[in-house]
């Protein structure tokens, strides 16, 4: 009985939709509709911190989102969106600025217009910068000071990639950004070839026609530039207090990220598959109680950074955990055999596939592919994992750890270990 | 209207009216006497809109405070400023009025949203 029902369910399962990309008057539009009860529309703009001409303008621009435009004031945007019951948000990564509206089905005309009017006619007034934007920028900087993990990864990017990808997501505490700087950054970023529009829970044709209407006047070519990333590596130590003692050990590489590294990070990740259990990762078993190791794998369009974020209550505990983690990484980088590799690959596949399930994951994965012009599909991503052989994995992993590492210590720098003490 | 009723936009729209009214306007502004104290017309606006004052650039805020100090000092001395310190018609620009109008518009909009009645079409 049960078996019969299960089999009928698999037959009835609807083939999964996946976004196809169309060019709508030069703007790339991708939409996927899986009959969600709500719709989201994201304008993904290549205006991340790696493109900024003055440090911190990308952070300023993120917080300027949905302020007054030629069509409506900041207050009008907030109140009208509340009446429609929608949520507006902006988020910034090193490569992209995402302006997102989430709303009930049927309200797409209004919300696409809100997003488009900010992009085409944002006013960037001086008083709004002083009254709304600067205080938020300041508080986000202040907040980051109490997050040593974030600080470590920011510092690691600066050490690993110097300029471009190395520039910080946040403005510096004593910046000299003005509304004029932000306006000129926005003008150079908000152009036809720089924007991708991604929708979930909305029909592709509807979204494309709305985008075409609302972004018809936008200028065509951008003057944004960022030099190709190159990897350097190095060591830095930042004194901090209040948070856990933190060490980040990273290995970066220029060029497109490979599936082998994703498999490596999936294999090493000590996060257990079953809650409250100890995972079977080689790191999980060897680190001392109270310390945590997080595997970080950040991939960008032309570089990637893989690393281990080690946190613990004291410098000595972090040293012990770091040593164990580095040892595990070195062992694994010699290669994985048989079942271990299969486990690593299926874990990596699941991570890649489940990321597409959430809205943010879908947007970040799909968006970067849409902007770079690749045809996007989950199947190609998953298929690339099937091609990873034992030899390919060993090669990818051993070239990764051969480069000069990034080493960042954040916290009590007197007790935190140095790179050589961890066996790097 | 925060700054009182005005026919200025209507007058400025017509070329003939502008050419008639301009000499009278200059005569009136000079007669009003504030220029002899080194003030600008917008310094006389009642400080009803604090937000508008905050929107001036730091330089404008400083200059405004300086003009007021200088004028009140002249008032204490029961005398106008020396002629070279008088405000010239070219200097007498409306630096605050645009901000006041903007703040007024925003306040109106806030009131509108606070009291708006929404109906689904």
TrEMBL record, chain A:
Localization of this protein: Mitochondrion inner membrane
Tree of life domain: Eukaryota
Entry keyword annotation includes Membrane: yes
Location of the Peptidase M16 N-terminal domain: 29-170
Keywords: Electron transport, Membrane, Mitochondrion, Mitochondrion inner membrane, Respiratory chain, Transit peptide, Transport
Main location as per UniProt: mitochondrion
Pfam family, one: Peptidase_M16_C
Membrane topology: Peripheral membrane protein
InterPro entries associated with the record: Metalloenz_LuxS/M16, MPP/UQCRC_Complex, Pept_M16_N, Peptidase_M16_C
Peptidase M16 C-terminal domain: residues covered: 176-341
Family, as annotated: Belongs to the peptidase M16 family. UQCRC2/QCR2 subfamily.
Full protein name: Cytochrome b-c1 complex subunit 2, mitochondrial
Automatic annotation (TrEMBL), chain B:
Record's bilayer topology term: Peripheral membrane protein
Localization (cell): Mitochondrion inner membrane
SUPFAM superfamilies named in the record: 14 kDa protein of cytochrome bc1 complex (Ubiquinol-cytochrome c reductase)
One Pfam family here: UCR_14kD
UniProt keyword terms in alphabetical order: Electron transport, Membrane, Mitochondrion, Mitochondrion inner membrane, Respiratory chain, Transport
Coiled-coil stretches noted in the UniProt entry, renumbered to this chain: none
TM helices/strands, residue ranges: none
Role played: Component of the ubiquinol-cytochrome c oxidoreductase, a multisubunit transmembrane complex that is part of the mitochondrial electron transport chain which drives oxidative phosphorylation.
Similarity comment text for this entry: Belongs to the UQCRB/QCR7 family.
Name by which UniProt lists this protein: Cytochrome b-c1 complex subunit 7
């Amino acid at each position: 009985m049960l078996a019969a029902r299960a089999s009928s369910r698999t037959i009835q399962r609807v083939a999964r939709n996946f976004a196809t990309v169309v060019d709508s008057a030069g703007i790339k539009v991708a939409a996927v509709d899986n009959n969600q009860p709500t719709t989201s529309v994201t304008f993904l703009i290549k205006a991340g911190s790696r493109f900024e001409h003055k440090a911190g303008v990308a952070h300023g621009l993120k917080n300027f989102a949905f302020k007054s435009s030629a069509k409506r004031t900041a207050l009008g945007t907030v109140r009208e969106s509340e009446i429609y019951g929608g949520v507006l948000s902006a988020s910034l990564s090193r490569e992209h600025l995402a302006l997102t509206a989430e709303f009930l089905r049927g309200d797409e005309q209004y919300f696409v217009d809100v997003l488009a009017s900010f992009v085409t006619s944002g006013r960037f007034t001086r008083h709004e910068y002083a009254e709304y934007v600067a205080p938020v920028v300041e508080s986000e900087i202040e907040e980051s000071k109490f997050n040593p993990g974030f600080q470590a990864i920011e510092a690691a990017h600066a050490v690993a990639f110097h300029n471009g990808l190395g520039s910080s997501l946040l403005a510096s505490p004593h910046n000299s950004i003005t509304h004029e700087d932000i306006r000129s950054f926005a003008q150079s970023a908000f152009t036809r070839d720089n924007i991708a529009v991604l929708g979930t829970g909305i029909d592709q044709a509807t979204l494309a026609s709305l985008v075409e209407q609302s972004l018809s006047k936008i200028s065509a070519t951008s003057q944004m530039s960022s030099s190709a990333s190159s990897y350097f590596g190095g060591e830095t130590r930042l004194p901090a207090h209040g948070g856990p003692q933190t060490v980040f050990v990273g290995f970066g590489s220029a060029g497109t990220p490979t599936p082998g590294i994703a498999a490596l990070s999936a294999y090493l990740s000590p996060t257990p598959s079953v809650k409250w259990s100890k995972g079977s990762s080689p790191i999980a078993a060897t680190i001392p109680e109270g310390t945590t190791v997080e595997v970080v794998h950040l991939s960008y369009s032309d570089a990637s950074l893989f690393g281990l974020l080690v946190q613990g209550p004291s410098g000595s505990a972090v040293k012990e955990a770091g040593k164990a983690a580095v040892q595990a990484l070195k062992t694994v980088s010699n290669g994985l055999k048989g079942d271990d590799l299969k486990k690593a690959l299926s874990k990596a596949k699941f991570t890649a596939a489940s990321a597409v399930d959430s809205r943010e994951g879908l947007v970040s994965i799909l968006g970067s592919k849409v902007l770079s012009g690749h045809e996007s599909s989950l199947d190609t991503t998953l298929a690339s994992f099937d091609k990873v052989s034992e030899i390919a994995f060993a090669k990818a992993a051993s070239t990764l750890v051969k480069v000069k590492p990034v080493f960042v210590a954040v916290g009590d720098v007197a007790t935190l270990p140095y790179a050589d003490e961890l066996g790097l | 209207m925060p700054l009182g009723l005005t026919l200025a936009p209507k007058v400025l729209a017509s070329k003939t009216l502008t050419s008639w009214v301009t000499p009278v306007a200059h005569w009136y502004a000079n007669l009003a006497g504030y220029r002899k104290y080194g003030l600008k017309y917008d310094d006389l606006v009642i400080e009803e809109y604090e937000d508008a004052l905050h929107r001036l650039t730091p330089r404008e805020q400083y200059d405004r405070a300086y003009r007021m100090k200088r004028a009140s000092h002249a008032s204490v001395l029961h005398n106008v400023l020396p002629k070279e310190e008088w405000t010239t018609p070219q200097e007498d620009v409306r630096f605050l009025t645009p901000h006041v109008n903007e703040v007024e518009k925003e306040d109106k909009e806030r009131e509108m949203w606070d009291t708006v009645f929404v109906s689904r079409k």
